[in-house]
Specification:
- Two copies of one chain form a homodimer.
- A seven-stranded mixed beta sheet of chain A has the order 1-2-9-6-5-3-4, sandwiched between helices. In chain A, strands 7-8 form a two-stranded antiparallel sheet. In chain A, strands 10-11 form a two-stranded antiparallel ribbon.
- In chain A, a hairpin with a 2-residue loop joins strand 7 and strand 8.
- Chain A is globular, with a radius of gyration of 20 Å.
- Chain A is α/β, with parallel strands linked by helices.
- Chain A has 13 helices and eleven strands.
Chain lengths: 375, 375
């Protein structure tokens, strides 16, 4: 649905979609600029009971954007330190303390304004504060828009493990204000693009999104909005089919993530961006898939070529892998493991599939450049 | 349903009930002794997919009971420090660390073995570990059996506020092994009895449970099991009607709790048992209800008399209230408050009702013995 412009009112042309994740509906609004808080609350009130109070959760980078919609005199702010290395329980506790100090009750609303780290932390805090308050997410990074904002996974890192603690808690309303991407640092842009490429691979190479991405890295304007809309539609549908990752569908979104998480972990959390790790992980999944006869060679080449177009490291071992033993240990303990076995998603002739019979340690070491193929 | 005895097998005559809390079923088994772990896992597997691994969560007091069903060589144990004062995030983190160190994945099962503090903490940890693992609760205290074990509220204290962080996460299977109450310290017994009395008031004075409790404090054997079964049936039904406390039904279970929580908070967490605080809170609710013409005087007398039979402090101010200003502050910030207003549950002509128009500060100060009625 596209909103028309109304004379005398600011124009917020928006694309809106609604998903149902189990019993939890989620409305996602792709917009240009972000509406001011009163307009957001009007939108909210059309969906849910009006909140008693609002807490704005942002980080030092997104605070200016948050201040463009309201100010701390109107609504209490919780300003987090930015970055993946701050994504721990102490940040969750900081949000809970801000809510408590501001006297928020269980009819309150947390509005997360930031990238995936902010929305994961604020979402987790919202899911546990007084056993759950309302949640709205304003996603300000490409990675957040394509991945974290859609579908309701929340979490914080613990004991050096990404998202070891967390919940399934979909925000009722999610804004993707594309204009905020104009000021996104290149490294952040690159991090998000890997998730967009992942989605394109899952949808399939013949489809619009993959072709759109093949036109090159300078995605902007309507092309960017189209890409976002397609990625959101795909992820939303997958999560609708399998909200809690128990039915073998949502796990597909994990393409590149088993290898990627292990790389993030062995290199030290925050050393390599999530997207760079996922891109490298996708390259590994292609190599594994090709070696097993699952990924057609020409498809693997097409995917690697796209990754290289966007400047991702695709060779193994990754130059910042760190200790190979630590990498293998992290790979064997990935959170997605089921019953002690690592789960690998592999590009297939169409889309991708789950490897039912995980490869042996030596094969994985070869795929990841830890052992030579001659060993 | 009563299980018959099978010759050659140990007898675990059990009363079983099943509730549906939203999409979450919960089976509750009232039994004498606790079955050994293999029998528990058989029971589990009849309800759910078998777990990949099991973590036993107990405290130093319930460790012997936990060791009577299995041992740390068979299943990893997490042994918490006992008591309400240890019910904080660091205890939740201790459980998460034990699970992580033991290599538990998301198909694992946490078995909580202890009173309400242990089951609240283990339940909270289970709800967030890898975004949620399976949960079985063995409730070993009267308070736990009557209150915490049924209905799926979990939580930990934060910033001195009881259960400020938590979740709704019903255990799929709950055991109430009545034999474990035989060794319950008198203070623990007294703490649980207040919740049983609260339930009897909510069901109503003419009914079996209230009459049973009027026979005096030496409840044991079949009378105790009958009382437990009635309390469980009542709470289960209320939670079925209103699993997330949004429909004005579950809030009734809060009778005595607004005053009680404030007393627990102002006296210092852990200084007064939850049950003693709730009993005193029920007396306050009667006094408030009588002053407003909601609680019939003869009903208030009957309730106060029952509370005194069990040795509870019913007079205001409570001798261990501490700073009256802190008490009033805690009362005004109770977690159950909705839109800035405290919620009071008041015994009515039948059962209890929510006070729609909260009383003023001075009235509350008089009810709580902070101001004299002549002021």
């Amino acid at each position: 649905m596209k909103n028309g412009e109304t004379p005398g009112l600011p124009a917020y042309p928006a694309e809106r979609s609604r998903f149902n994740f189990g019993a939890s509906p989620q409305d996602i609004v792709i917009t240009g600029p972000l509406p001011p808080l009163p307009a957001i609350l009007d939108e909210w009130t059309a969906l849910q009971t009006p909140p008693s109070r609002v807490l704005i959760v942002c980080d030092e980078h997104t605070q200016p954007l948050a201040r463009s919609i309201t100010n701390p005199e109107e609504s209490p702010f919780c300003v987090l330190e930015p970055g993946e290395t701050r994504k721990d329980w102490s940040a969750v506790e900081q949000i809970l303390r801000s809510a408590h100090n501001a006297g928020l009750d269980r009819d309150s609303l947390f509005i997360a304004c930031g990238g995936g780290v902010v929305s994961d932390l604020a979402g987790f805090a919202a899911s546990v504060y007084m056993r759950g308050v309302q949640l709205c997410v304003i996603s300000t990074s490409l990675l957040g828009m394509v991945d974290a904002a859609v579908g309701g996974k929340t979490g914080c890192d613990l004991f050096g493990i990404k998202n070891l603690a967390g919940s399934f808690y979909p925000a009722r309303l999610v804004y993707l204000p594309v204009d905020s991407l104009a000021t996104l640092p290149p490294a952040e842009w690159k991090s998000g693009m890997a998730e967009l490429i992942k989605t394109a691979i899952l949808i399939h190479d013949d489809e619009d999104l993959f072709r759109l991405l093949q036109t090159g890295p300078d995605l902007s304007g309507q092309a960017l909005r189209t890409a976002l809309a397609q990625a959101v539609a795909y992820k939303g549908r997958i999560v609708e089919e399998d909200p809690r990752e128990t039915k073998g569908r949502r796990i597909l979104l994990n393409l590149g993530h088993s290898f990627g998480h292990a790389l993030e972990s062995s290199s030290g959390l925050g050393q390599i961006s999530h997207g760079q790790a996922v891109a490298w992980g996708i390259a590994r999944a292609c190599e594994l898939g090709e070696s097993l006869g699952i990924t057609p060679p020409q498809r693997a080449r097409r995917i690697l070529s796209l990754l290289k177009t966007y400047g991702y490291e695709t060779a193994a071992p990754h130059p910042r892998m760190g200790n190979p033993a630590r990498f293998m240990e992290a790979l064997s303990r990935d959170k997605k493991n089921r019953r002690g076995k690592a789960v690998f998603i592999i590009p297939a002739a169409t889309g991708a599939e789950t490897l039912t019979d995980p490869p042996g340690e030596k094969t994985l070491q070869k795929i990841c450049g830890i052992l030579s193929y001659n060993d």
